[in-house]
């Protein structure tokens, strides 16, 4: 073994240590909608899942053409959104629930980001994030879907202010990920789910939560995406 191999072994150990959190990601099995749903709940904050976060649930299933996602925000206080916002406005500065979705198994450089706000407005784009962690001075670009409703990316939203619950259903066409109609069974995905909380008093300082919390206040870290199998 030469000097360099030894050196690499030495520096390799801490690097692998740092990646441990990311490689040990959660997984979820998702059935077809006539069989039920696959569900996750989370109540840990970003970064690192250190703090308590309002309980959030995501239920998924698939049909012939779509991924169906139900986002449920429990313990919602503010229902805070910007009334002037419409499709693809910066909803993410306020309160949103989000899914990052990639068809494949590796840590992706490109994935769909989908967001819905308490007033049923959506933001949707394919992200290009070649550093996989939104590294400074690396490209971080997106291509937005301009006609989501016509595309079949449709939501419905109900707020129950007394019960502090906000539910948004979303249909996300499988075709966006080159999965042909009826071909979803057996496909493998990487996904993460997020929620932001902020009130008029604390704006723009948000609380962040995630299914698999990233290790920085940055959702765009794809080594943290969980593994999802359509069964
Ligand atoms: C955060 O996770 C990324 C991706 O696994 C890793 O490269 C980085 O070293 C981690 N950073 C910290 C501060 O732990
Ligand atoms: C809502 O957004 C508009 C345009 O982006 C901005 O001018 C306005 O200040 C925002 N309102 C609130 C309540 O944050
Ligand atoms: C929400 O938006 C969708 C389009 O994405 C629309 O069909 C629906 O009627 C809207 N309203 C509610 C209350 O869900
Ligand atoms: C979401 O979909 C479920 C299942 O189809 C339905 O029971 C529920 O009423 C829907 N909620 C909203 C807000 O559209």
Automatic annotation (TrEMBL):
Asked if Signal is a keyword of the record, the answer is yes
Keyword Signal, does the record have it?
yes
Organism domain of life: Eukaryota
Segment forming the signal sequence = 1-22
Q: Which Gene3D superfamilies match?
A: 2.60.40.1190
- Keyword annotations: Signal
Q: Which CDD domains match?
A: CBM9_like_3 (cd09620)
What's the name of the protein? Answer: Carbohydrate-binding domain-containing protein
**Source species of the chain:** Xylaria bambusicola
